[in-house]
Each structure stands twice: as C-alpha cells, then as structure tokens.
Request: fold
Amino acid sequence: MLWLLPLVLLLTYLLYRARALPQRPWAGVWLWRKGLGRGRRRPRTDLRLFLLLLAGGALVLALEDPPLLPPPLALVVDASASMAADEGGRTRLDLAKERARSLLERAPEAVLVRAGATPSLLGQGAGVRLVPALMGLEAGNEGADLEAALALARSLLPHGAVVLVSDAPPPPGLNGYLGVGSPRENLGIVRVAPGFLALGNSAPRPLTARLEAGGRTYTLEVPARGYRGLELPTPVFQARLLGKDALALDDRAGFAWRRVGVWAPGHPALVRLLRLLDALPGDEVGMEIGIPEAPPRRPTLFFAPRGLGEGRVLALRPHPALEDLPLLGERLPVLPPPKGWEKVAEDEGGRGLLYALGESLYLPPLDFLKDRPYFPALVYNFLRPYREVKSGLLLPEETLLPTPKESFLPRAGGSRVGFLLLALLALLLEALLWARRKGA
Reply:
C-alpha cells in the first residue's frame, strides 16, 4: 500500500491548488508584489496545505499498518535428521540458522525451541542473547514432533509471533515460516526386521543402491519416491549403503535380539516356554494369574483364574500380540470382565473372551491355553517388541527428504490506530483554522 503515498500526496496538492481563490489583476497589488520581488523575503508557509498533506499521508500509513517495533518471537527450529542433508557443501540446518539469526537478533523478547523427537526449550529472553544457542543446534533426531514443539512455544510466549524454521511443509496457524532445502537425491535404510530390510529413495527417478550386509554386497534398484525390500539369509545383521548421497545418517542400520527380563509365576508351561524364548527373570514385562484390578505398571499378560462358560470368537479387534493367530471361530472361556479394559474378542452375545489395555492383555486361564497350538506364538508376539533391537533407523519421511513450501514472515502491525488518530487530528485542525479564517 505504500506505493499509494506519493499519489495521494500529489493528488491532494493538485486538488488544493485547483480550488485556490482566483486572483484579480489589480494594478496596485501587481506593483506591490513586483516591488517585493526585488528584495528578499521568506516564502509564505501554507499551514492548511501542510495539514491536508499530513492527513492524506497518515491515512495511507494507517492502511499499510507498519510495525512500530519487532514483535516478540517464538522461534521453533526443526532438528530432525533430514535437516542434516547436504545442500551444496552446507546442511539444511546451516541455512536455517543463517535465516533465523536475523529474526532472533531483532526480537525484543523471544523463546527458542528445538523440535526433535521430543521438543526442548533452549532459552528464553532477549533475542540477541539466544543467538549462541541457535548457532549451537545440531540435527540428528529420527524425526521431529513439530506440533508438540509449536504448542510448547505458544505456551511459553502466548503473545509472540510463532515462526517455524523447517524443511517440512508448515502446519496451519503459523505467523511465519522459513522453508529451507531443495529437492535432493538420497537413498536410505528405512526398515529392518529379522532377515529383512527396506530402502527408500527420495529422488524423482529410480536409483540403483549398493548395499553391504552380513559380508555380502547387494545391488538393487529402488523406485522413484518409493521403497524396495530385501530379504537376507540371517535374521541378525548390520547393513550399510555404499557410496555417497545427500544424507549420511540413514546409510547404516542393523537388527539384533536381546534377552528380556520377565516376571512370571512358576507355572511349568510358562517356565518351559520362557526358557525356549531365552527370557531372563526380571521386571520389564510381567505375567500374572488373576483378574486385573488396576492399570498395570508394566506390560503384562493376565491369565484369568477361571472362566464363566464358553463362547465362540465372532468378533476380533487388532492387537500386536494377536497378530496372525487363528482365533476367529475358536471356542474360548468367557472371562470375568475387568474394569476399564476393552474387549478385543467377543462371542455372539457380546461377552468378552479377550481384553486389552494398551500393550497388556487379559487372557483365558493358563491351564486352558497351555495346550493350544497358538499359545507359544501369542507369548512370542507379546515379547517381540521388547526383544528386538533396531539401530540406525529414521522415520521414512526423513529419508525421503521433505520439500519445503514458500516462506513467509510474521505480519506485525500496531500503528494503524495511531496513524488514524493523527489523520483525524490534522483534519480537525484544518477545519477549525479554515472556519476561523472564513469567519474573519
């Protein structure tokens, strides 16, 4: 809107001059003015014109609403692994620091939040004092919870302008966004499992990956912006990608097993099964006989002490421990219902045959289950998340390298009311002075 300022001032001046009183060529006045022109005199100030120009300029500035001072700043910087991607010899995070520094230095009050897997506050106070914390940031988290980081920043500085610096697209509700990064070609390991891994490709074209795992080298083509799986001969492995790409943090990954500490009663069936699964006595997970009376303090398998008749499983909800188990149509004991638990298996009458609360399960009596062919698989599935050790993995979207959107800065006003009052005051003074002169 500032481009209107010279036009408004020029138009005001021309209209004012066009409406000036016509001059009459009287001989005495002409001779008097000619005589004045031979000497020195100060030009006459036109106060009315000055007030009209002041009012017009103030109205244009009120429409523009320029900021009087930089606003308080709630700055959130993405520190996920993709921000370590190479951008012509510098990382995306280096570019982010450079662009965010000028904003931070001008802020009279600021908070600085690091967006990683868990958001963290790096500092609060005058913006210039937070610059060292900004410049010391490092990227590397497997992902960034941007929503949680933005919520933390808003809670710490509710009246501040919230600005996100990231390579990911901005969520709604931001006052400002600085997008960093450009499309880059990257290959990375995005998933590992026993004897299996998957690769991701960020490029808009297929790329050929060379991979070393278990002492062998593999070559495979990964589709554009997609994934490719690879089965390995051994369940436990360490793998690394050969060659150089935009991001080094996703080039190594591995899979291994560990022994889980299990607290369990001394039932012979459980003792034999836990020995086969190489479990240790411990307190990481639990197995108990009884009806759950309170939320368990650790993931636990509860075995009902008794059943209330039997029912056939006609409805089964997903649960990780029940994955691939042939339970539909199976006849199971009806369980005494625990308070606050959700049914995951029901019979035709809606009676609960299996219950779950988070990762914990409430199952039929142990003496009923111990001879069922699916019982070892059930216990294996329950322990599997705690036995698996996956190293070097990032979230798949980090390997695919997000592409930022167009940047925008906070729009901070605050001067509109002042300029409107100035324009009104100038017009009132002009009206009073002109009315007084007309009356005289």
Observations:
- The longest strand covers residues 187-193.
- The chain has eleven helices and 25 strands.
- The mean pLDDT is 86.
